[in-house]
Design brief:
The protein is 34% helix and 24% strand.
């Protein structure tokens, strides 16, 4: 099994005619993803060549869903148009929207997240500013390289795209059920807790890796959720042990103030509930390896 994205998922690409949509669409198809269409209201009716595969372009998400049965949209729309693209997908009741775009104003994210919530959370939003979701051997939606790991029984949820790739590569001999990059913006759709709950319920995920970073309290809240709801072993890494106070590091959400949001505080909260926490990505991978061997 996999969480959120499976081999049966039917994917469309919002912004399919742009350079990023074309490039990553072709890569997704090469990885075995069922890319069934894309959207661009100005180019409806055209066909886009993605690595030798012709993919139809629709004017709206609703049209694409009606014609193809799509249940996933991957958004490569530029930041100024992302809010409208997500709201359109919510109006069409698209089950899963993965927002790759970075640089989206926080106000826009708050608005489309609240819009989805007000409509009953029929649409799961992953991101923005995220690498997407990869279920190795099944499907790949976003920008995660498809050839860096194998199918296995580890679940991964991560704020950082780069650390997602590193962890998948370091544990490629064990493999992953699903890797979810949730993004590092201050406001995101799907959280660590959402993924932890899904992995807990997935019978083919045996252990969970959680990658966080400085800033906010998402990891502390995840620790409380793990203590109350997760029986599977969890290994974590928190990026930013050497980050200077008061400076944004990499992601817009990665800023600390005083003792709040520090890597050390997050490490202590996780270890308090029995989560093993690595000091480096490689050290974290080794903890997972030892756990799986045991």
């Amino acid at each position: 099994m996999a969480i959120f994205l499976t081999g049966e998922s039917r994917v469309i690409i919002a912004g399919i005619t742009g350079s990023e949509g074309r490039k990553h669409g072709a890569r997704m198809i090469a990885a075995g993803t069922r890319v069934v269409g894309g959207t661009n209201p100005r180019k409806a009716g055209q066909t886009v060549d993605l690595g030798g595969t012709g993919v139809p372009v629709f004017g709206t998400v609703a049209d694409a869903m009606a014609e193809t049965g799509a249940d996933v949209s991957v958004v490569f729309v530029p930041e100024q148009g992302t809010k409208a693209a997500v709201i359109e997908a919510v109006d069409a009741a698209m089950p899963l929207v993965i927002v790759i775009t970075e640089g989206i104003p926080v106000h826009d994210t708050a608005e489309f997240w609240a819009y989805a919530s007000d409509r009953g959370n029929v649409t799961r939003i992953v991101g923005p500013n995220c690498p997407g979701i990869a279920s190795p051997g099944k499907s790949n939606a976003g920008i995660i390289p498809a050839d860096i790991t194998t199918e296995g029984r580890i679940g991964l949820v991560s704020k950082s795209g780069t650390l997602t790739y590193q962890m998948m590569y370091e544990l490629r001999d064990i493999g992953f059920s699903t890797a979810v990059g949730i993004g590092g913006d201050p406001i995101i759709g799907t959280t660590h807790i959402d993924c932890l709950a899904a992995f807990q319920d997935d019978p083919e995920t045996d252990a969970i890796v959680m990658i966080g970073e400085i800033g906010g309290d998402a990891e502390e809240r995840a620790a409380a959720f793990i203590e109350a709801n997760v029986s599977k072993p969890v290994v974590a890494y928190v990026a930013g042990f050497t980050a200077p106070e008061g400076k944004t590091m990499g992601h817009a959400g990665a800023i600390i103030s005083g003792s709040a949001g520090t890597a050390q505080a997050k490490k202590e909260a996780l270890e308090k509930v029995g989560v093993k926490v690595g000091r480096t990505p490689s050290g974290t991978a080794q903890l997972v390896r030892e756990l799986m061997r045991g």
